[in-house]
Amino acid sequence: MLYNLLYPLSDQFGPLNLFRYLTFRTGGAVVTALLISFLLGPRLIRWLKKKQGEGQPIRTDGPETHLKKKGTPTMGGLMILVAVIVSTLLWTDLTNAYTWIVLMVIVGFGMVGFGDDYLKLTKRNTKGLPGKLKLVAQVSVATLAAVLVVELTAEPMSTGIAIPFFKGVLIQLGWFFVPFAVFVMVGASNAVNLTDGLDGLAIVPVMIASSCFGLIAYLAGNAIFANYLQINHVPGSGELAVLCGALVGASLGFLWFNAPPAMVFMGDTGSLSMGGALGSISVVTKHEMVLAIIGGLFVLETVSVIVQVASFKLTGKRVFRMAPLHHHFEKKGWAESTVVIRFWIIASILALIGLSTLKLR
């Protein structure tokens, strides 16, 4: 909004030319989202405690140390959603269609997560929305987003998949690209959701991935940088750097209240929406495969659940003491803070590997 209102006046007042630069507006989005989180957080937490009473239901079959978290409110993802949406609308170019598509995914997945959290609280169990209904809602939002991305993106990139480490390779899927993009968005959303099981565990890897994709969006949207790095140039995608900046700022702000011992949990409201945001940004920038590397921690957590379920159904035996993977290490005796910090380190290493794909071609 500020770009659309103030940049046209730069001829009359030179300093307003700053709004032309993505780097300036991205920094503004980071700071704005951070301030919104700091200002909104205490009020939201008090309101959630008042409304929720006993807080998020705690799994009785989980690690025993989690029982002490009883009474901690959930739906803290509302703080993230408000901070991201407001700061993005304030600093982005409102005529950019890609931004609106990603915001649609964030809001749509956030509504699904809100419904899930609400049912968990009102019914006092850990199940929430029926799995099939939850999946249908996510697929519906993601399908609309994927179709819009295909329509907006120029050929041949609109239905192509770029392969990391190989320059100029673009595998054409035709309209099969739509289900692929849906899989990426829904998969990323649920992967972040599975990772959100310990205080601060999911939010820092999300912040790391958002920072990486802010850089990727900026480079992919700039013809000169894209040509130099030999990545696919997607005109207009650079504006998503502002949204990624808002995600980073909102994540930092939320971490202030989610750091151990957490004052609030993000709930599905936050985890589903942020995962969906990362998935949709990767689809727009043609870095879907790179998301699997940068977000490798989320992939590991998801694979651990799949392996655990498959092994138990086929053989009656469990591979891990408990899934997702972070619970396995808790069951082995690792302190929660140890698991969280070591997983942050893994997320950082994977992010560096993912970013290396921009140059190693």
Task: Detail the topology: elements first, then pairings.
Layout: H1 2-6, H2 22-52, H3 77-91, H4 97-123, H5 131-152, E1 160-162, E2 170-172, H6 177-195, H7 203-220, H8 223-229, H9 240-258, H10 267-285, H11 288-294, H12 296-315, H13 325-331, H14 336-356
Antiparallel strand pairs: 1-2
Describe the structure.
The chain is mainly α. It has one domain. It is built from 14 helices and 2 strands; from the N terminus they run αααααββααααααααα. A hairpin with a 7-residue loop joins strand 1 and strand 2 (170-172). Helix 3 (77-91) runs antiparallel to helix 9 (240-258) and helix 3 (77-91) packs parallel to helix 10. The longest helix has 31 residues, at 22-52. The radius of gyration is 20 Å and the shape is globular. The model has no long low-confidence stretch (mean pLDDT 91).
Short note summarizing the structure:
This protein is mainly α and 361 residues long. It has 14 helices and two strands, in the order H-H-H-H-H-E-E-H-H-H-H-H-H-H-H-H.
Give the proportion of residues in helices: 55-70%
Largest sheet: 2 strands, antiparallel
Helix/strand class: mainly alpha
List segments where confidence is low: pLDDT < 50 over at least 5 consecutive residues: none
Distance between termini?
37 Å
Strand arrangement within the widest β-sheet reads: 1-2
